[in-house]
Amino acid sequence: MWDLSGPVEYATLFTDTSRRTCAANEEFKDCGSACEPSCRNPRPRICSLECVVGCQCKSGFFRDDNNVCVRECDNG
């Protein structure tokens, strides 16, 4: 039987805490954006309100085609 008498932290229930170590220029988010800025789409305009758990690029960084968070994109 579930005890629902107190607050429930959903992120705690569904987060794999063993994966909280992120690469350079990334940070772990319990409820990050489903539309992370990337070199291909630096300013996503339309995005769902879905929470994404995991590592995302820090503010001011973009995910490049090699899945690395970079401050400046090489569009040349």
TrEMBL record:
PANTHER family: ACCESSORY GLAND PROTEIN ACP62F-RELATED (PTHR23259:SF70), RIDDLE (PTHR23259). GO terms for molecular function: serine-type endopeptidase inhibitor activity. InterPro entries: Ser_inhib-like_sf, SerProtInhib-TIL_Domain, TIL_dom. The keyword Transmembrane does not apply. It comes from Haemonchus placei. Pfam families: TIL. Keywords: Disulfide bond, Protease inhibitor, Serine protease inhibitor. This is TIL domain-containing protein. The keyword Disulfide bond applies. It comes from the Eukaryota. CDD domains: TIL. Residues 22-72 form the TIL domain.
